[in-house]
Amino acid sequence: AQEEQNSLQTYIVWVEKPVSRNIFSQSQEDLESWYQSFLPETTVNSNELKSSRIVHAYRNVGTGFAAKLTPEEVKAMEKKQGFVSARPERILPLQ
Amino acid sequence: TTHTPDFLGLHQGYGLWKQTNYGEGVIIGVLDTGIAAGHPSFSDEGVPPPPARWKGKCEFNATLCNNKLIGAKNFVGSGKGNTTDSPPVDNHGHGTHTSSTAAGNFVAGASVFGEANGTAVGMAPYAHLAMYKVCAGAGCADGDILAALDAAVEDGVDVLSLSLGGESLPFYDDVIAIGAFAAIQKGIFFSCAAGNSGPSYNSLSNEAPWILTVGASTTDRILKSEAQIGDDKNNHFDGKSLSQPEDFDSTVSLPLAYAGSVGKQPSASCKAGSLENVEGKVVLCETGGGVTNIAKGEEVKRAGGAAMILMNQETDGFSTLAESHVLPSTHVSYAAGLQIKSYIRSTSSPTAKILFNGTVIGDALAPKVASFSSRGPSSASPGILKPDIIGPGVSILAAWPVAVDQTQSKATFNIISGTSMSTPHLSGIAALLKSSHPDWSPAAIKSAIMTTANVLNLAGKPIVDQRLEPADIFATGAGHVNPSKANDPGLVYDTQPKDYIPYLCGLNYTDQQIQLITKQAVICSQVEAIPEAQLNYPSFSIKIRSNETQSQYYTRTVRNVGPASSTYNLDLLVPHKMGMSVNPQVLTFTEVNQELTFHVEFSAEDGAGKDGVPISQGYLRWFSDKYNVTSPIAVVF
What we know:
The complex is a heterodimer of chains A (95) and B (637).
Chain A: H1 2-6, E1 9-15, H2 28-36, H3 47-53, E2 54-58, E3 64-69, H4 71-77, E4 83-88, E5 91-92
Antiparallel strand pairs in A: 1-3, 1-4, 2-3
Chain B: H1 4-7, H2 15-19, E1 27-32, E2 69-74, H3 94-103, E3 107-112, E4 115-120, E5 128-133, E6 135-136, E7 139-141, H4 142-155, E8 159-162, H5 175-185, E9 189-193, E10 212-217, E11 221-229, E12 236-240, E13 254-258, E14 282-286, H6 293-302, E15 307-311, E16 329-332, H7 334-346, E17 351-361, E18 389-392, E19 396-399, E20 413-416, H8 419-436, H9 442-451, H10 473-476, H11 483-486, E21 491-492, H12 500-506, H13 511-518, E22 540-543, E23 552-560, E24 566-573, E25 578-583, E26 586-589, E27 595-604, E28 615-623, E29 628-636
Parallel strand pairs in B: 1-5, 1-8, 2-5, 8-9, 9-10, 10-18, 13-14, 14-15, 15-16, 22-29
Antiparallel strand pairs in B: 3-4, 6-7, 11-12, 11-17, 12-16, 13-17, 19-20, 21-23, 23-27, 24-26, 24-28, 25-27, 28-29
């Protein structure tokens, strides 16, 4: 568990808007639930764990979220319906 | 800031400040390191309550939030897994500085080390501020930036100011470009730092055409000090220094040593631990080498040095900085440094004095482009001229959370430099324009700022760069901001968010990549893609490939925001080795908000680009009896 914790990195993940519903007319909770469906199966049985993986859930700037993931988990996520792209968070400097 | 309002023509009681009621009613969101709430610069004296549409929250306690600071939220490590939400306290200083530059209230008697004394005030003193903390010591995580932009759009800010940014990226991979697009879709003006990676070309950050990209230049105020070498009083070199200690004896000549030839491990850049045998000496250090200028002074002091002369590298030329050094010092140009080095070599016992001249106003060469200010062309989109504009970004006094000069005052300030400092100047000015023209789109405000910019310095000559040579268009963009003129531009080049879709298709992005930016389904095969330079932008950036003989045709549409009945004539400065024609050559408007379209043809002359001149520049200007509406033209061969 510690090893897995250490390999977690924050990724920005973009996903499609769900086809069957208009997420932007729904609550933040509904949106987060859609985002959580992309999280790895290993966290499925623990809502607390799933919730703790999502760092930010975006609503206005696009359909996506920032989450703590391992590279393997990102690879697994790529196979899910509705996945668009994911990349590690970058650190930008002050100017 | 204590001088830039005056330098930019903003005065209490009249002119643009009076016309816009000092930016009243406009909300500026700043993404930065947090804010020193409670600093006098964030007093709400004279500031009315926020507009009813404001949905944001100020997460400091109630005594620190007021009608000035209406929003404050911390996004650093604020993920769902954290339970320790804390208010966005500024432990760095940068966010306090930028916020107060954009919208700080009036604070009399501001100074740092007694220098730059005056009334400190931001560009839009009665505008509201919302701080979104996204940066900590390690920098600014782009996931946090995106979250803050998401919140700012929801909260209802009018202007966003980001004094941060990384390397150039395709816009679909650049969270600032993505977040900025969401902002402009809501009518939010977006101002960003061009970057501090100059003077190399292609060194810009934040290049998207829906962003105002801001470079940095000097003002006519100099915190002046001098290096005098040997016994000849005429042998002195102008420099800059922020800390000018009164107890330092400038009348005594001290032994002078070049850091590159003293110590156990001689280091011209005065690296930590490198200096020896410099007790009581003035040490000549060179900039760069991965060591900050302040740290060089610390090394000289550690080794027992009495003072420091800091000389530029060749690339930085005459662009020097007034910084808060730990010992008496002066920062001189590369040319001066070479002469000082030559003097040291010429004598067995070189000596120097450091003389302090205090705060001097009246540099006729201002504004000068700072060496560090990043330069175009844009890597992500070479067909859009960037940076867009330059503004004051060198030796800017603004609020700071703590005293840097041991003052006991509660009103603490610091003087620092960067495109971080020029960006909030433009954000505040945009807030004034937004207050004056609430119906103008972000693109219209940007056009007004760009087409009215100054291209001449106070001496009436072309703006110069760090070489003291005329700065090229990739350093200045449209030129130096002129707020009063920007408020009444005559014509604007407007662009709606949907207009960027054909442009993005023209960049050959995939439908999915464009959708990431625009948040709407786009099928480029059903859209008429346009070349980048066809976007209705207030400037032109043209690329001519070798042996290109075909002309390039573009159109632009301008909207009349001046008097209903207005006639504009054409003035062209055709770039070197280029041909240009414009049709029509007269624009006659009969109504306010009437739009007219004109066509521009560019053609390369024989031998263009083969005479050793890789870039050329010019302008297209529409002029009436009252207005000049100028679009700069860059050509890369």
